[in-house]
Design goal:
Four copies of one chain form a homotetramer. Chain A is mainly alpha-helical. Chain A contains eleven helices and no strands.
Chain lengths: ~210, ~210, ~210, ~210
DNA sequence: TCCTAAGCGAGACGGTACGTCCAGTCTTCGT
DNA sequence: ACGAAGACTGGACGTACCGTCTCGCTTAGGA
């Protein structure tokens, strides 16, 4: 974001790290308090004890700032390898479940989605951020599932990923129903069944699943 | 919206239907032209040839108006009964596909999602509107699939619905990848496979899976 | 105002006198409560228990209504004839003083003045109304003063009238100082002195002035 | 208006003088074009090439702005000292006459009067502004008249001022008759006569009047 | 006795201005 | 050249009021 790898000699007062952190912290706090798109830049700057120009010097728009602020929340995505495809998937699904359950995160989601639609840079940032990390983690697990023979070799990985991530999103954004472990486990089972090795030829895969 | 079936005698000049329709039409036109949240109430009123008060008399906020306007777009949802569960599902999925493909509708989706999150009334309106209609149509088809023996009797209908609707939403909002027939057909197949009657035995498959 | 002396046969439901009176009463009450130009026609109609059309059927504009309402306050102007020009004038001045002192009337004055400037019909109505009545009464007294020999025969009556009425208005509207008997008596004395018969002879009075 | 003499260090971008002046100029121009209370803040801001917030940052309401704008019109009040009280007074009266004759000023007067009645701050501003300046100039002349012996030592100065200013105001606002030199000269003569030293005797002049 | 014109309360209508609030930029200090 | 502070343009927001228009209803006189 504020890379300065141009080798230029960098003169003048250096940027304050405290300011940077204070802005991100203030953004998060305000987003939690009033919601994604009721946050005002004036309020963020005031809360951070910072001038508005200082904010805009670092982020080109409110949305880009908020995206980065949100990125702070979800830092680490697990990379499980228990030997069981189902268990591995459930580890990741439970992590996502926790994100939906956390009021701090969930309140942002829909506003974030709107911001992504409005602006391709934001969309890229989000896709390259925690969304991409989660997706990549799931992909690794699924690939191991294929290697292990739990899933067919011709499994459409992208489809499988969407079958795992889509239902939770849909419930959260649209139907407003519970995003809980029942849903997570149901999605996982559905994917495992849908892309399972054919029983008749390769022997009963259901045994394998466990 | 402003039904008045309370038997009260309804005094004063009645609200103008022309104004009502003109407002909705103007809203739709403007939404298509400038997008969901760049629409201005002033512009809607002006375009409709109507005072702002006339708009606010009917809808408490811009979002509620726009929600209703959007509801106008998608009126009829097909109710197919071809004899094949897969074909029936694909008819509905294709209808949804067309909605995502239609620039008029798709541009609104993310803004609408954000509005739902901001406001419970809007969420209710959307859920009760075209979202509910599509969901109900899918549910009917799935139930016929169960009756026909294509799907197991203990199929988790809500999960199946989310597996059908979620991936398209996810792709559209998050990953930005194509929402096409390949995805639709893949989702349908996955659901049919996941909830298929076990061919070899009649035993409840959940026992087996676990 | 709503004369109907055209000899036409007057068909249909006659106008309600109660409504008429209620409107005037409501106008006065509201003017007293919120001031001349903070009165809203909606409020007047509501307070009078009357539809707005009923108001506009009788008065073409808010200002014309308010003018008539104000006219109700000051009905009778005295017509004193005590034998003393000074005493007669003071009777009238005291009546005007009471008008300025009455919060009900005084609050209206400035708004009324603005309305007169905005609209010639209003100006005419006011001039022909209580302003004209007061002026006429003063004029009669002054004429008797001339007849009696208290004032010179060539007295500029209009100037004298303005010298009597202007200072009170000025204090009330502009300087905000007390409009009291001291001012009234001072004005009367000034006029009597200024237009007094020359005591010594009929000699040129301009000599005297300088 | 927005003095900042409190010794505080005044941080942030200072208010733009160009904007300030542009707003006042635009206000005056619009007032002349459309009249005192048909001026719209939007129009003023647009004409001045300024955001509305910039206007409201300086003046709390339209009226306060317009008052200050009007104050700009009449800057200098003459301070004549010809040796003749009558001539001195006529110099000032003629200046006032010109103000009433100038369409730019006169159109504002009644609206201004209403604004004064509505709001004490406005009244104070006007009284402290050009009204006060004129009044002070008249007062100085009258005092010299007393020193010179043209007027009695016990002359009620305030009364004399009101006798000079009131009639013009009254004609302008109420009777609608000409505010011309005849009126001005008549008022001056009346005041000079009314407060003249008694030539013949030193006896109290009130005896004479009665 | 019915007809028809006008009035009635209620409240919606088109317009217009209000004063507030943000976004993103710019300008003054002082560090 | 950074920092905080805060003013800048521009434009949407939702409210309030004016004077008009339309409902369904009532009240008269004339047929």
């Amino acid at each position: 974001m504020e890379t300065r790898d141009d080798g230029a000699p960098r003169r003048g007062r250096p940027r304050s790290e405290e300011a940077h952190d204070a802005i991100l912290a203030a953004s998060l706090a305000l987003i939690r308090e009033v919601g994604f798109d009721a946050v005002a830049m004036d309020a963020i700057a005031a809360r951070a004890g910072v001038g508005k120009a200082t904010v805009y010097r670092r982020w080109k728009s409110k949305e880009l700032l908020v995206v980065e602020a949100i990125g702070r929340i979800v830092r680490a995505v697990p990379d499980p390898d228990t030997g069981s495809t189902e268990d591995d998937l459930m580890v990741l699904m439970n992590a996502t479940l926790r994100m939906y359950a956390d009021p701090a995160t969930s309140a942002l989601l829909s506003g974030l989605v709107a911001a992504m639609a409005r602006s391709e840079p934001i969309a890229r940032a989000v896709r390259g951020g925690f969304v991409g990390m989660r997706r990549e983690a799931l992909r690794r697990v699924l690939r191991r599932g294929i290697d292990r023979g739990d899933l067919r070799g011709d499994t459409d990985l992208e489809l499988a990923l969407d079958l795992l991530s889509g239902p939770m999103l849909y419930r959260y954004l649209i139907s407003g129903e519970a995003v809980d472990e029942r849903l997570a486990r149901g999605s996982v089972h559905a994917v495992l069944r849908a892309f399972a090795q054919d029983r008749s030829t390769e022997g009963p895969n259901l045994e394998v699943v466990r």
